[in-house]
Amino acid sequence: MNAENLIALLIAAPLLGAAVLLVGGRRLDAVGHWVGTLLSAASFVIGVILFADLLGKDAEHRTLTQHLFSWIPVEGFQADVAFRLDQLSMTFVLLITGVGSLIHLYSIGYMEHDERRRRFFGYLNLFLAAMLLLVLADNYLLLYVGWEGVGLASYLLIGFWQHKPSAATAAKKAFLVNRVGDMGLSIAIMLMFTTFGTFAFGPLLGTHAEPGLAGGASEGKLTAIALMLLLAACGKSAQVPLQSWLGDAMEGPTPVSALIHAATMVTAGVYLIVRSAAIFNAAPDAQLVVTVVGAVTLLFGAIVGCAKDDIKKALAGSTMSQIGYMVLAAGLGPIGYVFAIMHLVTHGFFKAGLFLGAGSVMHGMNDEVDMRKYGGLRTYMPVTFITFGLGYLAIIGFPGLSGFFSKDKIIEAAFAKGGTEGWILGGAALLGAAITAYYMTRVMLMTFFGEKRWQPDENGNEPHPHESPRVMTIPMIVLAVGSVFGGAIFGIGDRFLHWLEPVTGHSHGDSPVSALTVTLATVVVLVIGGAIAYAQYGRRPVPAVAPRGSLLTRAARRDLLQDDFNHVVLVRGGEHLTRSLVYVDHTLVDGVVNGTAAGFGGLSGRLRRVQNGFARSYAVSMFGGVALLIAATLLMRAV
Amino acid sequence: MNPVNYLYLAALLFTIGATGVLIRRNAIVVFMCIELMLNACNLAFVTFSRMHGNLDGQIIAFFTMVVAAAEVVVGLAIIVSLFRTRHSASVDDASLMKL
């Protein structure tokens, strides 16, 4: 059997799971979670088989394509359902199915007492299928299908506890904000079609050896396409200015947060930019915008993460920040693409681990999310503590762990951009690393160290923190192992670089500072950030009620006023716009239409008086008319 | 005699007829004025026929007479029935066709 034919099965397995679980009804309640998990794992196994097949070929021939059928076969408009598996999509497939399967396994324990667990697994499978379709599609139109599928699945999962109004609102918000980005993608696809006549990856993006059509268009058009793609990426990846949905998305069950933040959804934007490298490479202005968006978001998310007392929201801020790193790297061009994806993969491990750890803490604490009511949990939950701790060391970039290898490379690449831009971007990335160390240390100290701060709730139930069941801790352990060794496996000997280079291309750039200096600086800032957090939260007791805090802290608690901004500018602005449009419609458009009608009505009211019924007056008008005609005829002759 | 004089006469008769149609109220008189206009036209046709030396105009004059005869039959019938219903032959009294 050819390896190509397996590609469709990758998507088919979770899709089948979603169909069976959602259509099957209550009969499957008892086994639904295992069906979902097994089908997800089956997809992972197929992914591993394909990966082994790719490794067996030489680097230039590692692109498999499978043409399933012609979707819209019209003259001059060819849309196929075809898949492309190359090193880039292979990386994503393994991440999505691998981390996704672990999250499925974890959810079995986490959602044990939820009566709608079968439906939950159906949605999880749908999420995986949509994401796999997104990364495996061989043209932008099919990618768009997966893109929308991810949006749908995220809506269903964020609002899974739909009986809570906050969850329903958060789901709606995520969906609406994502629609803005989706519009960017659809406009980009239309622009591609009008410019190049195709949106298939092969002819459009070309290969390393022969560049595709993308280089041939004018720079203005390419910049427009690239900016629209960036808008799409901003929506899915929660980048400024479309970041506001991510924090609220924490309303979903914790495994959903892990899935959205680590393996799927937010990585889609980075995938889109790296996949469209050929377009971005030819549009330097757009690339600059991408780097700015990345740098702004990485600081924005980090600052928000510092102020949140809700453990999931602090981690959400961290996700935004880490994705900002990836987008920044992707905007740097060939010097950054590989590292963006490498950070994406390592982030997939440690962020999934952190979220699952947070979920485990909540599981033991009666779903309490306020870190000020945790404290001293390390003795109660040793496994969660150790796995979370390893994830923590990985995300702050502790030397030797996975985040160190990938983040360090991104900071290095940012400096290598050269010129003033390089210094600014590199500086922002370094500052981000310091803040990351600060807020993650804060989370760690508030949750696992210090005195216990939890109180009985209003019903007198005191939480009894306990370790989570085996089905939840095993995925956490696996992810922790990945967080520890992933970076070394990828980074040492540039293995990941050589693996991905044939797809994305790579250049080393010209860094004004040596790699060793950057590494030392990274370690220094991470020690400083961690030390400040220790001084604030480790050395003195954490107050159970949040202090008022400075102006910046209060702003950061409100997500740096993102919702207030959106409300004032977009909601109010939109209301004013619609109101003025209604006014214009009523006065101008309706005025013209009604005025025309009234004018004709009045005129005919006057004209009808001519119909007086007197035969002689009709005769006068006839004679007058004939006389006029004759006069006119004579006049024309004379002239 | 100069044939143009006949044209002057025809114009004069036509004008008298047209004026009569416009200013008289009695349907019979209006009718007679219409006949006057028709005959003024006939005179003009015959005159032109003579001036141009062919018979087309004279043939049309015959046609006009035939049509006028038919018209008289219909017209007089209308006037009679009008008089019977309204006891008046005034054209202004028959002004029902208005808004």
Helicity level of chain B, as a percent range?
A: over 70%
Biggest interface between protein chains, with counts per chain? Answer: A-B, 11 and 13 residues
Q: How many helices of chain A?
A: 24
User: How much beta of chain A, percentage-wise?
Assistant: under 5%
**First and last CA, distance of chain B:** 54 Å
Please explain how this structure is put together:
The complex is a heterodimer of chains A (639) and B (99). By secondary structure, chain A is mainly α. Among the domains of chain A are: 314-547, no CATH class; 567-638, no CATH class. Chain A has 24 helices and 2 strands. Chain A has helices at 7-24, 32-55, 87-110, 117-136, 140-158, 165-196, 201-205, 219-237, 244-248, 254-263, 266-275, 277-281, 284-307, 311-331, 337-364, 382-396, 402-416, 419-448, 470-491, 495-504, 515-538, 551-557, 562-607, 615-638; strands at residues 64-74, 77-85. In chain A, strands 1-2 form a two-stranded antiparallel ribbon. In chain A, strand 1 and strand 2 (77-85) form a beta hairpin. In chain A, helix 15 (337-364) packs antiparallel against helix 17 (402-416) and helix 15 (337-364) packs antiparallel against helix 19 (470-491). Chain A is globular and about 115 Å long. The termini of chain A are far apart. The mean pLDDT of chain A is 89. With 99 residues, chain B is mostly helical. Chain B has a single domain (4-86), classed as Helix Hairpins, CATH 1.10.287. Helices cover 78% and strands 0% of the residues of chain B. Chain B is built from 3 helices and no strands. In chain B, helix 1 (4-23) runs antiparallel to helix 2 and helix 2 (27-52) packs antiparallel against helix 3 (56-86). Chain B starts with a helix and ends in a 13-residue tail after the last helix. The model of chain B has no long low-confidence stretch (mean pLDDT 91). At the A-B interface, helix 24 of A face helix 1 of B.
